[in-house]
Structures are given as structure tokens and as C-alpha cells.
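Lab notebook, bench 4. The sequencing result for the construct came back, and we need a structural model before the next group meeting so we can plan mutations. Quick request posted to the team channel:

Model the 3D structure of this chain.
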Amino acid sequence: MNRERGPYSNIIDKNKLKKEEFNTNWSSILFEKNAYQSFLDYLCSLKDQKYKDFANKLIPQVNNMIGIRLPILQEIAKQIAKGDYEGFLSHSNVQYFEEVMVHGYVIGKLSNIPIEDIQEFISYHVPKLDNWSTCDSFCSSLKITKKHPKEVFDFILPYAHSNNSYEIRFFIVMCLNYYINEEYVSIVDETLQSIISDEYYVNMAICWAYTTMFYKDSNRVLQFLNKLKKQLETEQNSRNRFILQKTISKICDSRKITAEEKTIVRSYHV
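Done. Here's the predicted structure in C-alpha cell form:
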């Protein structure tokens, strides 16, 4: 799977949205209890079984999926963000995968309110993330980060050492989306190396982050790979071996990397 474009990119590119799928103006609705239930009923009416079967193969641990294409959820969120977004986001007891996605997309659409308010919405939403898809999509939607990099980084940094694996992944994916740059790459590298977890989706995110970092600062990543290699030569560690091998694999899978660079990277195999 080419994660540089994203797992749903082929679907988003090839499927056009139908106007009849948006026959409700969500920007004009006040989301008290009955209206929110109507929103859930509406989501259920959009079920696409073929898409659900496809998506469940990508996210097998999710058992509360309706089966709705992401562009549809994004359009619904865009409308809600123009209206009673506070009322909508106040409904915190979510039932469906798509419901979590829409909540995340709504937060991502908020740009004309204080960053402190957005951070509060983020803090309520992050505990709802329980799979890589809701996590990564939420991170990608938080474009406000580009306007407030320091405030957001200081806010997300504590998540790096959370006891919740998807909160840790939230920090990592936020970093690879917004903070692999000259100003932040050093602290991102330092923080990533301080994360110790046996969780697959945490460690895969670390590999993904170092692959992204390679495009910007290859020497730094080679130093990291060399450190892992030396550690493995003296002490066997399944986690370090996994991160080393997967990072090498992901870098070498990239079309952005030259053949010469791939040869150098492969030399760190143990």
C-alpha cells in the first residue's frame, strides 16, 4: 500500500459525489438531542456495503463502521462547521466510526476561533481515536497547525508519552504532517527516540515519520538507523529490529529516494 498518497486516495480520485447525497443543509441545524439523532439516522441511510467491505479489510479492528465514503463525510463536516458546531461536538458519546470521523473533520474546519478553543475541542476528541484511520485523518485535517505551530506543538507534546497507543500515534502523525522541518526536526527526532512502545501502530508510525524525515534530513535518519543497528549487534530487541527493518523497507519503497541512497540505507540491515 502506498501510504504517501493515503489508503483511500484511489477511491477519492475516482468517485464523484452525487448532489442527492447532500439533501440536508447541516449548517442551518441546531444540534439538540433529536437533531443529532437525525444526523445519525442520516449517516446510516448513506451506507455503502461494497465500500464497507473494502474499508473493513484496511481497518479490521473496527466493528462499528456504517460504510460511507470519506468525501461524503468531509462535505457533511464542512456544512456543520459553518453552523452549530459547538452543539454538534457536545455530543461526545459516539456510536459509529464515521461519527468519529465527522467530529474530527468538523474540528479541522474550525479556523476563525481562538486556537485555545480549538485545542479544547482537540483534547475532547483525541480519546475517541481507537484506530489508525480516525487518528491519521484527524491529524491531516488539522491544517490550523500551520498557522499556530508553536502553540500546537506545545499542546501535542505530552501525548508522546501517553499510556494510550493511539494518543501516542496522534503525536507522531501530527509531527510527520507538520513538524518535519528545520525548526522542529531536532526535537521531533529526540522525542521519537524517547517513545518506548510495543504497540504495532505506534511503531509503524515511528517508521513512517523517519521515512518522511529522510526526505528532509537523510543524515539524521542514517544516524538513527546506525544507532539501532549497533544496539542490535550487542543486544537482541524485537521492537528495535522491527523499527529498523520497517524503516529501511519504507524508505526503499519510496520513489523519491535515489538508487544510491537506497543502497546506503540497505547497508544498515542486521
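Residues 1-145 form one domain.
Will bring this to the meeting.
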